[in-house]
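Data availability (excerpt). The following record was deposited with the supplementary files.
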Amino acid sequence: MSEMALERHEGDYRARQVRLATGIGVGVILIGALRVWYDWHGDPWLVWLLVAAAVVQGALAALPWRRIIFRSWTNQLFIAWWLTNVVLLLGFAAYDTAALAIYPAGVTLVLASTAAVASGRAAAGIGAVSLAGYLWLATSRDHPVDTTLAALTAALMIGVTWFGVRTAGDRRRLDAARRLAERKVEALLENSSDAVIAVMPTGGVTYVSPSVRTVLGYDPDYITGDVLADITHPDYLPTLMEWWAAVCAAPPGVTERAESRVRRGDGRWMHAEVTGTNLQHDPSLGAAVLSIRDITARKELEEELTRQAFADSLTGMPNRALFRDRLEHAIARNRRGGGRVTLLLVDLDDFKLVNDSLGHNAGDQLIATTALRLHQQLRASDTLARLGGDEFAVLVEDVDELEAMDLAERLLTAIRRPLRLGNREVVTSASIGVATAKAGDGDDGPDPGELLRNADLAMYAAKGDGRDRYALFDPAMYADILREAEERAELERALALEEFVVHYQPIVDLPTSRLIGVEALVRWEHPVRGMLGPGAFIPLAESTGLIVPLGRWVLRQACEQLAAWRTEFDTASGIRVNVNLSARQFQHEGLVEEVAGILRETGVDPHQIVLEITESLLMQDTESTIDTLGRLKALGVRLAIDDFGTGYSSLSYLKRFPVDILKIDRSFVDDIDTVDGDATLAEAVVQLGRALQLQTVAEGIETAEQWSTLQDLGCEYGQGYLFAKPGAASEISSILGGARV
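Predicted structure:
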């Protein structure tokens, strides 16, 4: 088992003390040799014998004391050694009467050596033996030593002995405190998450913390400068060597950090953060201290977060952020090389229907399969990304327009292939927008945002042309979108400034021409273009969603006007006001609550309000439509099917709708008096209404012949230019005064 750092430090300390004691012993022997040389006048062999003894004792200092100091027999050896020195001094002083003065000095040196290494008990014992020897010498002489001198010498020896005992005790306590502190440090380092290694600039390792076992998986004694280089990943070694040179050359105390990959003892590579502090100025170290921390978990987390930030979780392909970055790099690259970049935006057609009908799991499967099919049509150098939802982007470089068109066709063909989702086989399609940027487009070359916008416009053009096709970007598309944006802004401004007005067209009882109701029709009183009919702005309002606030405003205006008429005319209590609901309004989640709120705030009788819905709208999401109609009906309003006959509703569905009125489309009325077929269709609608106990209203009556024919067919009510054109509320007020049109 390797020595711990604590044992090595303790061994070094005690070895130094033993060598000090050895030096003291050599000094005592040499003092005796000098006495023999000058005063005994004996043979030189005795002097040389003493010198040889000093050399032998001095040679003891060369022994590997750090390794043998902890042997169980060393304490007994030291005590025997010191007693031997005291006995030799005693014999020397007994033989040489003049050497009595040497004895206390020699004993003092021996006691000092004892205090430096032995325990307090051993120091007291050696002191007692030394004092007893001196008293024997002082009293056994032919000429006894002066009492005062003997007492002073004995007191000195007692003091030296006491000082040695105290010194040994203090040293023992200090050693214990030092060992405790070192054990704490060792325990902390052993359980530290960092491996601490002290390395000299030459590469020598002077300290290795026990935690190197857990952090790196190596035994501390195995770590050397060469090992540190061997376990560093070759890709990081040159950079790390430069970093190490910078640490060694840095000012004292300066800390530098670096990242590396290190091979653990079990062969696995780990990511490591290495902190180096230059402590060469510290005489106790003379090295740079390296702290190595395992950051593999952190790096893996960073990589995972990066993957999540730049990769689509469903398909694993680049997401919008990463695609935008690659697009920017591709444009910059081709700007320098004079090439071209082509972008294809792929949007699946009717993807929402798959989610709604088959569930989101089926939708995810469709997305993943589509991604795979698209990828199979691309080159290794091309980039495929999922931008979100059912939208993909393809980035290709160095292809001309014909090649881009061929790629778009291949992508469409791949997407059309049947796919089994659950127990159903699904065939889907996509719309693709293609935009190309060539070097030199614009002052600084093509802009990534502009290229994405162009491809997006082309994709929507493909959808507008019927879907399942691709379209190449044309600058005219941008002009169209700008115009639409301007028109939307103008429409929003008109809503805010209330530039709209409501006109009313009378609905009459066909047999009597009596006014029974009006249809509210919105007009735009444009500050520049004058009065605009619905055809000029309703399609835009419908496509932009502004039809919802506009329709809400029309309903409120109509209800307020009805309330005003009822206050002014008694005859107004029997009329009804028809208000059209657009498809967007009908699908609006808060429609029923908004209608209820307007009825409550205006105080009108709900039974006087007729909400008109087109026949084609009724057939969309039938169950939801029936639910919404039922909730509206519960408010007390009446419901009418507008443009009836132009849709595709079946009788079974029609019976389920809680409607009150059928409005015959004007296309059946236009030639009702000349073409037998139209009269037959109009009659069928009237008969259907009668069978279902619904009222019928004919639209677009412009001639007396049409009026007469509709009466003969049994139609109850009608409206059209024959009776009155749509007019301001004041015109309806005039009619209400006479109750006839």
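Summary of structural features: Residues 1-6 have pLDDT under 50 and may be disordered.
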